[in-house]
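Usage example:
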Amino acid sequence: MSKVIVNGKAEGTVLKTTNPINFLGAVDKKTGMIHDKKYDIFEKSIKNTVLVFPHGVGSSVGAYTIYSLKSHQSAPLAMICQKADLTVASGCALANIPMVIVSPEEFNSIKDGEEIEIDTNSTNIIN
Amino acid sequence: MELTKEEQEALNGEMGDTLQTAYRILLATGEATNAEKLIPIKWAHLSGVNYNTIGDSGEEFLRELSKDARVKVKATVNPMGIDFDHISEFEHIDDEFIKKQASIRDSYTRMGVEPTFSCTPYDIFDLPEKNTQVSFAESNAAIFANSLGGLKTNKESAFSALASAITGKSPYSDLRKDDITIPMTIRMKMDNPNELDFGMLGFFAGKVGDTSVNISGVSQPNRRSCKALCGGMGTSGTCAKFQFIDTEDDKSEKIDFGKEEMNEVYDELNTAEKGDLITLGSPQLGLEEIFDLSKMLSGKSFQKRCMIFCSRAVQEQAHNLNYTNEIERAGGEILSDCCTCLTPLIDTNETDAVTTNSIKGAYYLKNSTGVDVNLKPLSKIIEDETK
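Running the assembly step on the lines above writes:
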């Protein structure tokens, strides 16, 4: 079962990490590059991806990081999480980035690098 | 989440852009936390004040928003990047930073917030009566409010707390309810923990815990240790509440925090044998901590630069009580309105490593400021770095 947090439509390539993301601490707010070595997507950019990650962690200011990424055209096209947190939800709401919560099974079935379509108004949200 | 007719109208834009934006944020955060409705809150504490963290887009957003938005409830704000009273002593801070930081400060005051510029609102104000609903974005303050202050808040984001300040409302999420089941107990296995150990315990608990944890094996930590615990916990995870327990119940999952777990956190955050300068304060120091520090420094002097961060309110009280004299005589620089975390006052061209007792500070020094960190408890800092 998916749950829609922020409405919208997107289509793109999945960038998947098993690490919870601290947007303030680990993501460059202009380029979208991950600059914390502890992440399995270290030195990858989240720009224009469908970002799939467990949930956000850490500073509440991470919401501004998400908004800044959007302003610099470096934001993900959509975000898919396993658990919602207020930082990611509110950042996506203000930046108009579609965001969906999925079950652990669905989360596991999404593969890094695959093409994916999200439409929060459709019956099958993720295709 | 169910909205009232009035809330729905605001969401549809019938009451202007500002309220529409605010309700869009509240709706997303309400859905994210499975809340069934919005409820009134009495106090919002906002993050997103430091130009270093929110950048140009944040500065522009607040400038636009503040033309129209006004806070509806008591609202306080997090630290800025700099202390305007001491900015001439930091030549590497450029005019652009100062201008943008001033703009952010002015946007917040235009909206009607109290210019506290502090991550420790609980050190500045008397807390409202027990079970009062508040919206605190700063993670250490949210955890403190829920766990030690008797208040109720989500671990709000910068935008959800701002939306709460403007509307006076917040989603009625689990943490706001009276009977929450805490699913996990962290068993503290270290004897005589100092504040650094408590910071590491918090960092560990934040990583393994969900939204709330029990902590057993801890007796009456002092305020410095409590604040370190809140700061560490807020940095690493989504956990927004802890509860000290004496006797363990059988139902919750048990996880030990012993030497091995502590060393793992230490190795993640401690990357240097010594620092070029010392920072104290993340969270900012309270009056009691400033007093303790002045006693510890009696007859001693720092052998390197030491930046001490506290709120302006605490600095003024400390000054009036003559606590600051001894610290300044010992060479400590007391800075207000900013904090270790993400301050540009630390010149990375001149600093390779920083000594601190703050786990929260260590995380952001390492990952955002980009310097190495040398972790030590305050007693050891005084022992090693003063004469």
